[in-house]
Amino acid sequence: MTTSIPTPATIGTKRWLNGAVGYEVYVRSFADSTGDGIGDLAGVTGRLDYLRWLGVDIVWLTPFYPSPGFDHGYDVSNYCDVDPKHGSLDDVDVLLERAHQLGMRVVFDIVPNHTSSHHRWFQKALAEPSSAERDYYLFRDPAPGGGPPNNWLSHFGPSAWSLDEASGQYWCHLFLPEQPDLNWRNPSVRAEFDAIYKFWFERGVDGFRIDVAHGLLKHPDFPDNPQIERVADTAGPIERFFSFEHKYDLDQEGNIEIFQRWQDVARPYDAVLLAESGVDDHARLARYVSPGALDLTFFLKPGWMAWDPEKLIREFVGLATTEPMRIAWVISNHDQARPASRFGSAHRSLAVTTLMFALGGVPFLYQGEELGSPNGEIDPADRHDPISTRNATDEGRDVCRTPMAWNSDRFNGFSAVEPWIKSAQRPAEMTVAGQHENPRSALHRYRRLLSIRKHHPDIWQADPKFVATDRADVAAVQRGRTLTVANLGSEAFSINLGDLRWRVLFASQGGDGESARGVVNVAPETTVIFAVDQ
Ligand code: GLC
């Protein structure tokens, strides 16, 4: 039995997305060209040839705008400039030009849910409560009995409200107090962001990854969120945050209308809008990429999951059958523990990634994932992430933010001086240079996977037919002349390929090029892409 999903052959109107593979660069930790221990734009430009060699089409850069750095750039104090620690506007131009010469597109990160508390809008809002800027933010009176206006929590703990002592009102922040949330019901905020988008589109950027896209609007009455379960006193802020149903602070209906407005700004530039959306429900997430809204949305849930083959298969297949083309697939980013550690091995991570490459949409890798890197090792005293520095109960996100390991030089070739974040040196076999020399390395496996996708567009483009199997830890999808079988389980899986002659295009644990016919075995924790042999 097969389930056939009618699907358009293209992702949408931005044709350059078709068949593309994305790669996230965490700018602070990618390459330092100036010798201050902090990654910068010129450092990224110097490594674009590497990304092209790997087969990357879209480079997503994390925020490099002026920022006091309370949340490492996700607290922006000026949306139309570059922080001197990351370079200059000229460096942006050079980076874009070089990427375009190499045939790659570049997507920046925009942070519209909140600004930095150092942004001139917020400074004015605090200094002059009667100013227009006051209503750019969400200031509210205390609850009738005193204290915060409602029970909302910050992702980074504890309350989502901080008191402005001068006025006696609280401001809302779903992250740090230094990241005040904007009021997206205010037309001036909407107009300000239209201008910010245009500023960068005119400069040649190819699109934006939209930070916390699901957070923009809050319920106008600010009701309490319902609590789902009680958590232990020792629970970290994220666990605490998700012990509530985010009925009134996240994923509000009107967000889609804002996306449509942004799309009207982006469309004439052929620029792409890609959501970071913490929405797990497949049907609700599909709304973000409904016609006229965003081009793509990340599906973040698998990136938070530990190794759980059945659950992983259920999530991937469930969403791929709900929204076959406009998902940006990802199991790793700068907020999540590295999948080689989370899943328990690099080969599991590649097995899942290989499935992702066969689901339509656009798969994204996070820097270092192509090396099968496990988490970085950091002394607890050297942690930087505010989630851990402000909450003793959480390890935070530093483990995935340690510098890119280029070679075996001191600091792994990332910088000439101690990097902004101290971590254990990576061994030679975990570096780009070390793996480059070894044709059996993770780096070469990933490179081949990217190339297979490019040369066999059936894998992502042809009408997908999910083949029913008797195993919940296996997914099999046929697209045109290809068949991808993901066996995430711990037992081999046999499948009958019938009388046709097939060839193994890519097997996550090796074996490419072998021919296959009749009943074949797919090894445990392995994904294989077969193609009908000519
Ligand atoms: C997003 C970013 C994360 C940041 C948060 C607040 O989730 O990926 O790094 O801390 O938004 O801006």
Protein model, in words:
Helix 5 (187-203) packs parallel to helix 7. An eight-stranded parallel barrel has the order 2-3-4-8-9-10-11-12. Strands 1-13-14-15-20-17-18 form a seven-stranded antiparallel β-sheet. Strands 5-7-6 form a three-stranded antiparallel β-sheet, with no helix packed on it. It has two domains: 2-112 and 185-217 and 252-450, Glycosidases (TIM Barrel); 120-172, Oligo-1,6-glucosidase, domain 2 (Alpha-Beta Complex). The protein starts with a strand and ends with a strand. It contains 16 helices and 20 strands. The model has no long low-confidence stretch (mean pLDDT 96). It has helices at 41-46, 48-54, 89-101, 120-127, 187-203, 237-241, 255-266, 282-288, 301-304, 309-322, 339-342, 346-356, 386-389, 432-436, 442-455, 458-461, and strands at residues 2-4, 22-25, 58-61, 105-110, 139-140, 161-164, 169-172, 207-210, 272-275, 296-298, 327-329, 362-366, 464-467, 474-479, 482-487, 493-496, 502-507, 515-516, 519-522, 526-532. The chain has 534 residues and is α/β, with parallel strands linked by helices. Strand 3, helix 3 (89-101) and strand 4 (105-110) form a beta-alpha-beta unit. The protein is globular. Bound molecules: alpha-D-glucopyranose (GLC). Residues 71, 74, 111, 175, 211-212, 276, 334-335 line the site of alpha-D-glucopyranose (GLC).
